[in-house]
Specification:
There is one protein chain. The model has no long low-confidence stretch (mean pLDDT 87). Helices cover 86% and strands 0% of the residues. The radius of gyration is 29 Å and the shape is rod-shaped. The protein has one domain. The protein starts with a helix and ends with a helix. The protein has four helices and no strands. The protein is mainly alpha-helical. Helix 2 runs antiparallel to helix 3.
């Protein structure tokens, strides 16, 4: 693999040469590298956004589970806890079993 500075130097020589074909090749290589950098940047941004969303969803779920656990401690009915938290009944039943163990 050649160093980035060597690549840039080669592209510059090709662009400055009097040969139209060499100049076109250099411009194509430059465009390709810019496009690759843009795609990489966009992928990183997409990954960051996805990570933030995933973190928010995990936090919401943890909050709901904590509330459900507190309501179970108050002996509230499973159906009412499901209605208040939006959690499925089977999750609440499972949480109840974990608390009694």
């Amino acid at each position: 693999m050649t160093s980035p500075s060597l690549k840039r130097a080669c592209h510059r020589v090709l662009r400055l040469s009097g040969d139209d074909q060499a100049r076109a090749i250099a411009e194509s290589l430059d465009k390709y590298e810019r496009d690759q950098a843009t795609r990489l940047s966009e992928a990183k941004n997409d990954g960051k956004q996805e990570g933030k969303l995933e973190g928010k969803l995990e936090g919401k779920l943890e909050g709901k589970l904590e509330i459900a656990g507190n309501l179970l401690g108050e002996n509230m009915a499973f159906e009412k806890i499901a209605q208040l938290t939006g959690l499925p009944i089977d999750v609440i039943v499972s949480l109840s079993r974990e608390q009694t163990v």
